[in-house]
Amino acid sequence: MIYASPLVDIAANMDLVRETIEVCKLILALTHWQIRLLSKSNLLPIIARELPRDRIIYGVSTGTLDDKLAVAFEQGTPLPSKRLQSLHWLQDNGYRTFGMICPSLPQTEYDAFAREMSDAIRAEKCEHIWAEIINVRGESMTRTVAALCAAGFQTEAHELHAVATDKAAWECYARKTFLAHAQLYPPGKLRFLQYVTADSYAWWAARENLGAILLGRVTVNSIARTQ
User: For residue 226, what are the CA distances in angstroms to 166, 172, 197, 216?
Assistant: First the structure.
């Protein structure tokens, strides 16, 4: 399985759509690999129409169903409603799909959030469900909090700031998000991406059977010191 670049959207505009089609054709011709294409765009159906169905899996990334909220912290991307519309088109027309619930903010009701997202992406039509909370990259958290405030989402900004400045609260946010998703899916369906530390490693490692995928660098020695 080859994954499309996680840092560059493969369908952000028509130039990239055309490049993605050509790259996929080359990979399909030269290898036996399957290809997983992830995008925040609503242009995936254009790519799908040009490629065979059996070896490509499509997914759109969204961590909220609120278009206005998404605009506040995902500037320059199509609305979640448009992304989901394209995902539904792919599903209705027999293409392979996966869910990508990310980046998701802290929630007031985690279980309700997980159910709403599952329904929106039509989880039963997705081969796998990937999920992730917001991750800190440079000044991204500060900018996200500021953007939420500027857009009038004061509650969301406050809750994100609260977990971003408290390691224990951050870990609680990650665990609640994971557990809310994990209760909805059978073994092997969920793939929850989580950066772990020496302190949190044991908890997450014990839940790999529920779909936790551990990321980051945690040395054996640092883990041993916590046990």
Answer: 20, 19, 10, 17
CA distance 120 to 82: 12
Answer whether 160's CB lies under 8 Å from 105's CB: yes
Domain boundaries, the chain: 61-226
- Using only C-alpha atoms, what is the Rg of the chain? 18
Whether 172 and 110 have beta carbons less than 8 Å apart is answered as: no
Residue 47 amino acid letter: I
Q: Tokens in use for 213?
A: 């995928």
Q: Which residues touch 187 (CB under 8 Å, ≥6 apart)?
A: 209, 210, 211
At a CB cut-off of 8 Å and minimum separation 6, what does 38 contact?
A: 3, 4, 6, 10, 59, 60, 61, 100
CB 66 within 8 A of CB 89: no
pLDDT (tens digit, 9 = 90+) per residue, 62-108?
999 999 999 998 878 899 999 999 999 999 999 999 999 999 999 99
Question: How far, in Å, CA of 105 to CA of 132, rounded?
Answer: 10
pLDDT higher than threshold 60 for residue 154: yes
Segment 104-130, tens digit of pLDDT: 999 999 999 999 999 999 999 999 999
